[in-house]
Sequence to fold (170 residues):
Amino acid sequence: ARHHIPVKLGVSFRYYLDDQWSIQSGLTYSFLASDLSYSSLSTSYQTEQKLHYIGIPFQVGLRIWKSERFRGYLSAGGQVEKLVSGKATTRYTDENQRPGTLVENISDKKLLFSALASIGAEYMLGKDLSLYAEPGIHYYFKNGNDLSTHYNENPLSLNITIGFRFHWEK
Fold:
């Protein structure tokens, strides 16, 4: 299995409890792609897997730096994600060297939970809107599915989330 680096985009909402502390949540979209290959004595298979997840994070943040347009912060929390769409396209060659293609939809009814910590920076586009980038670390807990994914095979991973954030001050 060769798992590509997950792509994650998000929109989030931050509420400041005071000048330093905040809570935030939002919505994330994650795209996971994998190339899987295997063979038996008479047949070889090559599968391209594409998975789409929607997630809801919840984090507590601590502002560590602030200027007129830029802010820096630390945050930690968790996230729950749901596989909303998945497809596997398998190309194979059978024992008679005849090629074929099989396309199947992938689903998973189980939720995927993770813990996360990040350091972030944001550029204020206006009083209540910013563009942010958060490099961080995620730990994905096993949810009992048998999918071969980046999350299952690399439960502890570095990532970066980029998106827009809306702010509310107390």
